[in-house]
């Protein structure tokens, strides 16, 4: 699935995209989307860095918050601002339809354009107020000429993605992307507002002892997830025979970047809480693009049993359980979901339930 390496002619994002298009002209529309995202991301990074200064120093640029979005969350001012920035940038790119976490319905941009985009403009936005990393995640799909309606363009498996990426607004602003070749990383230079190449080929370590999960949901998890975490917590005395470490940022982009950098595994499974049967994360603009980038960096992504990129969506805002990261560890977790022996003879609280909880 991984395409070959592209020789670089310079060290900026623009050089990188130009080299890709020189090699394969069909990538030109995808490259245009990447440029649009980079432009909006640079402005988003600036606004995030300004924080509360932004609204007064920027002529009231940050709009009023308070409207409930499709997920029922109260939108924060920056959610609305970033949604506007990315929508405006993508309207200048060859994008026919946009699905955004912040919009109930798909939005038409450029009729007849070859691509459609699904985006979470500001992932982890509950972290804004506490000055912790947040991000943008997006997926690029081919527009379908025979789509019955705007949503129908997006009912394609993640393997059909033409490209994907995420941006982490942290101590540095990092842009991770793939157009179907190696997953590459870029860093925003705040002096020039341009992205410079950081790493041309990200490679997720195949093995790791570090996992990320919101452990406060332990009692709601299914038996397979509990069994894996129980065994990890037993350390070198337990079935996994090694000590583990845990991290949870509550911004998937930040957890993902750590995993791209030093390995590890991330889990947001379905659980028994009301509305969390398929977990919390959205298939189109969180789960699928992360899975695409992970696979192009040698990692794996699954819903516990099925490869994420094989899942065909049925609704634009649908949720999906997600486990991704170091290939060997993801395989181990799949084993807990598929091998009944691994969860047998444990606590009587464990009931035989599927991955998608009621
Ligand atoms: P928000 O964008 O609403 O802050 O959600 C962030 C997120 O989708 C993902 O980035 C985190 O990994 C996950 O939710 C955190 O969820 P919990 O709050 O349930 O731990």
What is the topology?
Layout: H1 13-23, H2 28-50, H3 53-57, H4 77-91, E1 95-100, E2 107-108, E3 115-123, E4 134-142, E5 163-169, E6 173-178, E7 184-189, E8 194-199, E9 210-212, H5 223-233, E10 245-246, H6 252-262, E11 265-268, H7 283-295, E12 300-302, E13 322-325, H8 327-338
1,6-di-O-phosphono-alpha-D-fructofuranose binds near residues 73, 126 and 280.
Structural account:
- With 358 residues, this protein is an alpha+beta fold.
- The protein has two domains: 4-202, Fructose-1,6-Bisphosphatase, Chain A, domain 1 (2-Layer Sandwich); 210-343, D-Maltodextrin-Binding Protein, domain 2 (3-Layer(aba) Sandwich).
- Helix content is 28%, strand content 19%.
- It contains eight helices and 13 strands.
- It has helices at residues 13-23, 28-50, 53-57, 77-91, 223-233, 252-262, 283-295, 327-338, and strands spanning 95-100, 107-108, 115-123, 134-142, 163-169, 173-178, 184-189, 194-199, 210-212, 245-246, 265-268, 300-302, 322-325.
- It has an eight-stranded mixed beta sheet with strand order 2-1-3-4-5-6-7-8, sandwiched between helices. Strands 10-9-11-13-12 form a five-stranded mixed beta sheet, with helices on both faces.
- β9, α5 (223-233) and β10 form a beta-alpha-beta unit.
- 1,6-di-O-phosphono-alpha-D-fructofuranose binds next to loops.
């Amino acid at each position: 699935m991984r395409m070959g390496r592209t020789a670089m002619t310079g060290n900026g994002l623009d050089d990188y995209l130009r080299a890709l298009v020189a090699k394969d002209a069909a990538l030109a529309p995808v490259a245009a989307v990447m440029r649009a995202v980079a432009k909006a991301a640079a402005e988003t990074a600036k606004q995030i860095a300004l924080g509360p200064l932004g609204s007064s120093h920027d002529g009231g640029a940050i709009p009023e918050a308070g409207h409930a979005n499709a997920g029922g969350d109260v939108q924060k001012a920056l959610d609305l601002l970033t949604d506007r920035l990315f929508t405006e940038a993508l309207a200048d790119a060859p994008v026919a339809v946009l699905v955004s976490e912040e919009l109930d319905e798909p939005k038409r941009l450029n009729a007849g354009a070859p691509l459609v985009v699904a985006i979470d403009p500001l992932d982890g936005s509950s972290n804004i107020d506490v000055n912790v990393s947040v991000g943008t995640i997006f997926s690029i799909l081919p527009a379908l000429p025979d789509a019955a309606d705007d949503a129908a363009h997006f009912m394609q498996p993640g393997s059909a993605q033409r490209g994907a990426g995420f941006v982490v607004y942290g101590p540095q602003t990092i842009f991770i992307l793939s157009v179907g070749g190696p997953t590459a990383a870029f860093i925003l230079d705040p002096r020039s507002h341009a992205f410079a190449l950081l790493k041309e080929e990200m490679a997720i370590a195949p093995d790791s002892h570090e996992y990320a999960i919101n452990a406060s949901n332990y009692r709601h998890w299914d038996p397979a997830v509990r069994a894996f975490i129980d065994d990890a917590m037993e350390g070198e005395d337990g079935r996994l025979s090694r000590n583990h470490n845990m991290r949870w940022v509550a911004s998937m982009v930040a957890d993902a970047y750590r995993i791209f950098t030093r390995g590890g595994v991330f889990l947001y499974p379905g659980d028994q809480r009301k509305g969390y049967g398929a977990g919390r994360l959205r298939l189109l603009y969180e789960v699928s693009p992360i899975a695409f980038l992970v696979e192009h960096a040698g990692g794996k992504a699954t819903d516990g049993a099925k490869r994420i990129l094989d899942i065909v969506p049925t609704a634009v805002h649908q949720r999906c359980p997600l486990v991704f990261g170091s290939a060997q560890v993801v395989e181990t977790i799949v084993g807990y979901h598929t091998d009944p022996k691994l969860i047998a003879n444990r606590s009587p609280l464990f009931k035989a339930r599927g991955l998608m909880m009621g």
